[in-house]
Amino acid sequence: MPQANLQFLNVEPDDEETYRLLLRLGGFKETELARQVSNDPPHEDAAPDPRAIHRRLTELGLATETPGGLLAPVSPAKAVEGLVERTVGRLRHKLEEEVIRSGIVDSLLAEHEKSMTSDAGPATSTSTGQTQHIEGMAAVRTVIDELTFFTRTENLTTSPTGILSQESIAHARLMDSRILRRGVHMRTILASPALDDPTTMTYLRELTFKGANVRISYDPIERLIICDRAAALTPIDPAHTSKGAILTRDPGLVAALVSLFERMWQTAHDLPTSDDGEVEKADFASDFERQVLRSLYTAEKDEIGARDLGIAVRTYRKHVASLMQRLGATNRFQAALLAHERGWI
Question: How many of the other CB atoms lie within 10 Å of CB of 47?
């Protein structure tokens, strides 16, 4: 039976052979890398560049540098998991761009709109010019999915109750992560009950570490979702949001709703801070923070770490600086070690 290989996960044969060598030997210093690789049969005729090999293996997440200066292999399960995540991330981005380029969603929506005016069954929405009434939460969530998929510059949202259920967070996480990966500027305002709900606060911390701006309002706020200042959603009945929503693309109405959001934003407050001015955080790391911390082992440059996580370099550096401060680390390597000691990674 032929030996399985990692080429389907975009790992070159030479890099895979070096990784396999690391697994066999357990690790070695960069100064020994050229000799060890040269002695390995697949590389006997090559003139390996230790720095290039070191860089490629760490970028791929196949190796890390230990405190003692050894280049050590990442465990096979963890290495393959990371390769799969990177491959899926690249594929997802490529497919999303192709969907936008092709216009397939618009084409399918046109078919859906035809059904609204047919005799096939009851309509879930009615449309008048640039305004559409959407009935029922299932239909509203479908519209939100479509709007956020095409959002490219700005996403503005509010939560008048302030409490986010596990179900709503699970639904929002995929959309929020998707738009933040694209570098969309996200601002969200929640009512003050959010401060007393651990589930909500955990998710708000996750959002802020991914690059979102979050504020808390102690005054009543209106329910809004505004995408790219081109489309806005408001409830049909603010007291009973499950009835449905009104979607408008009318420039004048959208502009008025943006102004309303800005007024609410100005009167809202940043998340509460401790005496040193840092946002209060429990002694734990979110899933995203753990990814940032792991990248300190595997990414040689900030640009590589940001690319692997699907965020902007500036956002990546902000997360690293925040984590270093939380851990009391003076450098990134120390931050990774301290995080490991706390069980964060």
Answer: 8
